[in-house]
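Open question from group meeting: does this chain pack into something compact, or does most of it stay loose? Before anyone orders reagents, we agreed to write out a predicted structure and look at it together. Recording both the input and the output here so the notebook holds the full record.
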Amino acid sequence: MGVGGQRGFAFAARMIETACILVRFGFCAPMTDPTIYEERLAHLIRTVDELSDVVARQDREIAVLTRRVEMLMQREAERETDASGTVPLADQRPPHW
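Structure tokens returned:
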């Protein structure tokens, strides 16, 4: 069993344990049909996979945007240096420091 399978098994075990606690304290009726657990587990695994894809896509987008901001900051600093011949204002300490 691969790492994903181990995580899925651990997740299923936690889900069953949580369901048992809820039943024990009277928050819900016991689910005796194992297919209910299988369906809920399959739904949760699909949801986790979808969210993982979203996070991976957002990580790539953040990396691209970070590189673009760095490039723009460098370009603006070069423009300030070329225009005034001094150190860019962004690199100078404010007078109250």
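Observations to bring back to the group:
Helices lie at 3-24, 34-84.
The chain has two helices and no strands.
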